[in-house]
């Protein structure tokens, strides 16, 4: 089945302005103009973020859609894939965000506009726990691109979380996955973009 609808989910403190989101959007526009591409600005609340996404893709064909997520967006992508039964690609995905983001409670700034602030509430940790799909078999094919040099997340935890995924493990690299454009052909082929 070819993918006609593609959802991209950015990470914590990130936005649709992230380098990877923009690269993916440009690649789809140039090489797959028939594909519907959506990269929403996610609110800080995980529950609100997934409600926004669920509303936005409610009418998308589950069999012809796919999701890509980076970091916390990778965690969210696993939830979306489980609920829509669609293929997913995770980029340095957060696998224990309830544990890791517990130290981020309080005021935060966004990467792309340090003047933009938001408050990460304590109750968001329980919202993250409620969205965790670890331990469930994947509902559709998964691919994970993981950098061993990730300075934010442990690459071994990422690999262990996705035992059935097509794993692309990069020597070195970093959390931002600056070489993402190198992987666009593999991502495109894996998702069978229309």
Give an account of the 3D structure.
This protein is of the alpha/beta class and 194 residues long. The protein has 7 helices and 8 strands, in the order βαβαβαβαββαβαβα. The strands form 2 sheets. It has a 6-stranded parallel β-sheet with strand order 2-1-3-4-7-8, with helices on both faces. It is globular. The model has no long low-confidence stretch (mean pLDDT 95).
Which descriptors apply to this entry?
194 residues, alpha/beta, two-stranded antiparallel ribbon, 7 helices
Number of strands: 8
The gross shape turns out to be globular
The percent of residues in helical segments reads 25-40%
Class by SSE composition: alpha/beta
Radius of gyration, whole Å = 15 Å
Q: Main sheet?
A: 6 strands, parallel
Average predicted confidence as pLDDT: 95
Uncertain regions spanning at least 5 consecutive residues? none
> What is the string of SSEs from the N terminus onward?
EHEHEHEHEEHEHEH
Please give the alpha-carbon distance between the first and last residues: 9 Å
Spatial order of strands in the largest sheet: 2-1-3-4-7-8
Beta-strand percentage? 15-25%
Number of helices: 7
Provide a quick synopsis of the model.
The protein has helices at 19-31, 46-56, 72-84, 97-100, 124-131, 155-161, 180-191; strands spanning 5-9, 36-38, 65-70, 88-91, 106-109, 117-120, 142-147, 166-170. The protein is α/β, with parallel strands linked by helices.
């Amino acid at each position: 089945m070819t993918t006609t609808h593609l959802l991209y989910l950015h990470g914590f403190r990130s936005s649709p302005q992230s380098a990877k989101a923009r690269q993916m959007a440009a690649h789809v526009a140039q090489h797959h103009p028939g594909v519907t591409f959506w990269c929403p600005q996610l609110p800080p609340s995980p529950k609100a973020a997934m409600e926004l996404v669920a509303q936005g893709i409610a009418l998308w064909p589950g069999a012809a859609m796919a999701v890509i997520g980076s970091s916390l967006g990778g965690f969210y992508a696993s939830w979306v894939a489980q609920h829509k039964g669609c293929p997913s690609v995770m980029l340095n995905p957060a696998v224990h965000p309830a544990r890791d983001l517990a130290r981020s409670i309080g005021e935060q700034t966004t990467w792309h506009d340090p003047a933009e602030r938001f408050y990460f509430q304590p109750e968001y940790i329980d919202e993250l726990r409620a969205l965790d799909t670890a331990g469930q078999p994947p509902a559709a094919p998964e691919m994970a691109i993981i950098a061993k040099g990730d300075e934010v997340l442990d690459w071994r935890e990422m690999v262990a979380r996705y035992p059935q995924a097509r794993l692309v493990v990069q020597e070195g690299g970093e959390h931002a996955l600056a070489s993402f454009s190198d992987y666009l052909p593999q991502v495109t082929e894996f998702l069978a973009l229309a």
